[in-house]
């Protein structure tokens, strides 16, 4: 606990300036990375009803690590699709901590993770009520401005949405947006590779910033597709 005041949360898109002089960095989890990047622009712009957020997320099996577990065996996962740790996932406090920081107010969310029968990749579909009536284009403008200088976050054009195959093997986060004008609700889709931007790639990105290196060093991979 004594080190908490010295630690910096290692999400470069939000804490780059602090990371430059940090001695201790907490590398974010994979689910939190996808959800926080997906919501940060809307929260910082004050667009979201903070009591309305639902994050429905899916992860490849490598998110559970390499330790042999019955639930991660090929025959257990293949041809299946299921939720797990409903209302008790260990990443929920981390997600809420950073969403609260972005919003400047206490945020609690409903977060449900699911296990995909694939090796790697995370896709989070986030639902959030909007405080005022805006269009998809308005929301895209907010996100494009927020991430304009970010090399690893790509906001997709209207009508386009992420696919885990498009970020596989990369340090990228792709975000797609839509607004239901009748319900005044945003649908935000965010996708990363849980092993790169959700883990080791983000750690390298943080290290590059801490060491004064080019932030993209060692992270220029294109998607492993097909």
What does this structure look like?
With 226 residues, this protein is an alpha/beta fold. It has helices spanning 12-19, 30-44, 74-77, 92-103, 136-146, 196-210, and strands spanning 7-9, 24-26, 54-59, 82-83, 110-115, 122-129, 153-155, 173-180, 185-192. A hairpin with a 4-residue loop joins strand 8 and strand 9. Helix 2 packs parallel to helix 4 (92-103). The longest helix is centred in the N-terminal third of the chain and has 15 residues, at 30-44.
Helix content: 25-40%
In terms of DSSP E residues, the strand content is 15-25%
Order of helices and strands: EHEHEHEHEEHEEEH
Largest sheet: 7 strands, mixed
Shape summary: globular
How many E strands?
9
How far apart, in Å, are the first and last alpha carbons?
Answer: 45 Å
Radius of gyration: 17 Å
Low-pLDDT segments, ≥5 res = none
Going across the biggest sheet, name each strand in turn. Answer: 4-5-3-6-9-8-7
**Multimeric organization:** single chain
